[in-house]
Amino acid sequence: MKRPFIIDCDTGTDDAIALMAAFGCPEINVRAITSVNGNVKEEYTSANNLNLTEYLGIDVEVARGATLPFYPRGDYYGPTHGKTGLGDVVIPDAKETSFSRDMAPEVIHRIAEEENGELELLVIGPMTNIAIAISLYPQLKQQIKHIWFMGGAVAGGNVSSTAEFNIWVDPTSAKMVTESGIPMTMVGLDVTTKAVLGREDEQELRAFGSKASVLSADILEYMFKRCKDGGEDALMHDALALAAAVIPECLTCKEAFLDVECRGEYTAGHTVTDIVGRSLGKAPNASVAVELHLDVFRKWLLECIKRCGQA
Fold first, then answer.
1. Is 222 exposed, middle or buried (0-12, 13-18, 19+ CB in 10 A)?
2. pTM above the 0.90 mark?
3. Which stretches make up the Inosine/uridine-preferring nucleoside hydrolase domain (predicted)?
4. Residue 293 among the catalytic residues
């Protein structure tokens, strides 16, 4: 029996690779994809989701979501994913498919009720949609089985010295979600900055020749150029959060009390992760990834991408 998932994402380069891995992952059934503002504006993240699913021939509900975070950030979009999210990679505009009539919070609520407590969320962007859904439908706190999210860090950040991007964009929503009582696993920079793919992975995917594998190789090529120009390496932040759900052996996790700082002028977006036995003395509310077994992850990721779109 496949596990039902909704993937909530701000589809940029590594989000797209995570989606292709999810479509090729035999353990899960992607019930819907919901878009959120994050790496780029929501108008681009939602279009990327719709275009990607049609291009790959994936039949899945695609819904639009939040266009602004609750935390006032202004225009913060950077060059990491290019203007529209996929760097210099272009896929055709969707012609035959359209967005769901429901917005992301309604889709989450509806599918959670249909799945009778078995729905899991893969959250690989800011948590705005999830916070709205919980606010509108508080019963979701009992209906969602687990949240697997890419965000935060035990130590450090990539937007500031203390904050990781996904949480930094909307710490208000992240705090609401982490306080919801829903079981969750945090896959943060402590491990995702080690989840790097290389030239041999790109060549293997390109040689396989499927739409998904070639598209993934093209995205990796963009990432290599980005890194050469001083930007981020080919880091698989979001695919690693999916891996946490289906191949837990690729990570070492520890139970922790997790909270999100919202008020500090310089620290808003910091994830306070009190590993059991440290200082705060509060009961754990999350599992936190602290170590990565890279070879296990890389092998799994390439296999999933190769299965994407294959009958």
1. middle
2. yes
3. 6-298
4. no
